[in-house]
Amino acid sequence: MAGQSDPELSLFSAEELEFIAEDEIVDIVPNLKMGPLNFISGDFGPFIPQIVAQVPLWLAVALKKRGKCSICPPQWMSVEKLTQVLEAERNSQEMSEQLPFHYVEISRLLFDHANDDISDAYMVRSLIEDIRDVRFHKVETDLEAFNGRTIAVKIKNLSAMEVNIVISVLSNVHFHYIISPRQLRR
Amino acid sequence: MASSSMEGSMPTMDEYEALLSTTDVELLKRAWRSEKAAPEILRYDFDLVGRVTEQLQLMEETVDEKSTSGADPLSLSLYQMDLDRTLFLLRSYLRIRIQKIEKYMFHIRKSDELWNRLSKGEKDFASRCIDDLKHHLEESVLSKLPENYQSVEKQSVISEEDDMVPEPRLDTFVLCRSKEYLSGIQLEDGPVEDRSKLFEMEPGVLYFICYKSIKPLVESGKIDLL
Which residues pair with A72 in a beta bridge? Predict the structure, then answer.
């Protein structure tokens, strides 16, 4: 049962999260000519050299691995944008809403498979790591604020990986009472 | 959040179009995620699994055809990848259900509501599992115990409830996201004075909430679990 996480914790394993993130749509610039692909998961293409096409990430990576395209990194993966995000994250206890739900997985996949398509890849990578650290730290601080009188927690802009941290903490604690929206209104 | 009425019971044009363009794979992914996140077994989506299986078979035939007719190996391998991804999704969905059935089979068998959430194959599987496990427990342990302690479901004859049946914990926290603005959610847990308060959900925002409170909304498909 490879890749299947423990159902007890309702956690998605890192592989499963990656699987989900691979359905996110990205832009590619193909360098081959290929007719449209009519997949079960949708229709993509046709592909014409130098004409931007939109495909799911898994397809982009598959083509990239075979040297058939270059991937255009999403707009948020630029040094300029990420510097802004990092600043926003550092200046406030709130989570910034500028990154997609699967930003950790998407950036990871792109670094692994399309590093040469990312401008300033080194900077981008270290910025994303910083942002990740700041955000994870915030999640942990928020969790410390939980107490026994809360009904539900409203969380804005949490990413998929961060969700896993929260679930694993919350399901390990035996909650008789739940968490109030007023206490954690963010 | 001024209005408390439930708006948008009729789908707007945009929603209707979104519905049309939603592929079965997308729907299966949603069912898979909900099934994975929910503590108890959810209703088996018979129609959806049927449609996906049909598409998988068609696609398998197409791929076979292409491979014999000497089609472009690149596009062939891409079709195969798409096929494999969908197969994984379907298998994983069915496996999670089987794991839940194995764990809670006695509990599921007891209630008609839960029992009817299973597919025909799952029912057969559960029945066989129950028989085998009962048989095994009786043979190996229970028959050697004193008469009052021989039930599979109860600790002893004086137990009022079936206290040896594992049940899913419905008070666990789940992460969910609503598709539309929902209000008037009755919280069934928590401190007594808070229970009368109604809870509201904004679309697109993630909430951690006790599964029991939103159970009906998950069942009606208004809320997705993550």
Answer: A27
